Amino acid sequence: MRLILLGPPGSGKGTQAQRLVQRYGIIQLSTGEMLRAAVAAQTPVGLKAKDIMASGALVPDEIVVGIISDRLDQPDAAKGFILDGFPRTVPQAEALDELLKRKHMRLDAVIELRVNESALLQRVETRVAEMRARGEEVRIDDTQEVLTKRLASYRQLTEPLIHYYSERRKLLTVDGMMTIEHVTREINRILTAIGAVETKGAKAAAAKRTAKAAKPAAKTSKSAAKGAGAPKKTAKAYPKAGKPAAKGMKKSSRRLPASSKARAAGKPRKAAKKVTKKRAKA
Ligand code: AP5
Ligand code: MG
Asked: How much is the pLDDT for 263?
């Protein structure tokens, strides 16, 4: 699964990314976290980023694109990743498209967490209190003054990505004003509906169908050995199964095509059925 979490500061990108990491065992790539680590380690990138981050502005595109490019080259990224806080500008999104194309990787979805601006300050203040309680160093940009600047950067440079990914039919919007637990549930529903992940039930159903199809196919392969020329792999005729479409998915963002809806409902494609019947007869 390859996913982007998009949303203003304090919308819950980091919180939800962590939950996805735990559930699906894929990595979280947070440019904010990577930059903070670079600042703490006083690397050349950290030295360049420090004052920019403290002011609430965005670090130059070439720096963050370089960080992400290096990170995507590492073996643990092959299994999938959640991008949290990247891309943040249209040039970053274009650079990511190029990187993924070169690596023959496809993005599954961009999930936008939509939150009222009035709720963000309270959330950031909560985070400050939580970090203090854990004895952690508070983020230098978690003040009302810097948050106002971060929000301005978001509106000006990051919000255009909503249109960018909507045009590419990748955008799915979730109401980020719900509780953390509800947001997680909606994200998981969406991921299942688009076929980015499989539920246990769907996996079992798919395995059952594959096993059913395997019997007549085995007979067919025997005749194939005699020269009948039957196809060898029948399992591929069956698509992934999933759950019905996500409730929290906004209609304007993305519609599932009829074939995907059938798949989401756990039904095999009609054409696939026919093929298998023919094979069974052969
Ligand atoms: P970054 O670290 O990415 O910060 P951000 O985008 O400003 O977002 P936050 O981390 O503040 O919020 P979040 O959405 O992760 O919310 P969280 O889950 O923590 O970037 C920092 C800086 O680095 C940037 O300003 C920039 O300078 C630089 N940078 C980073 N990436 C860059 C890039 N690509 N290009 C250029 N510059 C870049 O939640 C916040 C709080 O709310 C928590 O307390 C949480 O418990 C709570 N909460 C979460 N969800 C809910 C909910 N549903 N209900 C109630 N409370 C909730
Ligand atoms: Mg974050």
From this structure: 43
Ligand lying nearest the CA atom of residue 11: 1
- CA distance between the termini of the chain: 38
Distance of alpha carbon 57 from alpha carbon 264, whole angstroms: 42
For the chain, the maximum distance between any two Cα atoms, rounded to a whole number of angstroms, is 78
Q: Please count the CA atoms within 13 angstroms of the CA of 196 that sit on its side-chain side.
A: 27
Name which residue leads in pLDDT, 45 or 243. 45
State which ligand 1 atom lies nearest to the alpha carbon of 5. Answer: 14
The answer to whether the CB of 123 is under 6 A from ligand 1 is yes
CA-closest residue to ligand 1 atom 53: 180
Q: What confidence tier does 210 reach under pLDDT thresholds 50, 70, 90?
A: low
216 pLDDT tier (thresholds 50, 70, 90): low
Q: Which residue in 18, 44, 45, 41 sits closest to 29, CA to CA?
A: 18
Contact 154, 9 (CB under 8 A): yes
* 52 alpha carbon, distance to own chain's centre: 27
Count CA atoms within 13 Å of residue 18 on its CB side: 6
Give per-residue pLDDT as tens, 194-209: 988 876 666 666 667 6
pTM to 2 decimal places: 0.78
Ligand 1 contacts CB of residue 151 (under 6 A) = no
- Ligand 1 pocket member 19 (CB < 6 A): no
Residue nearest to ligand 1 atom 43, measured at CA: 127
Mean of pLDDT values over 84-98: 98
DSSP 31-99: HHHHHHHHHHHT-HHHHHHHHHHHHT-PPPHHHHHHHHHHHHTSGGGTT-EEEES---SHHHHHHHHHH
- The tens digit of pLDDT for each residue in 32-48 reads 999 999 999 999 999 99
Catalytic residues: 13, 88, 127, 139, 150
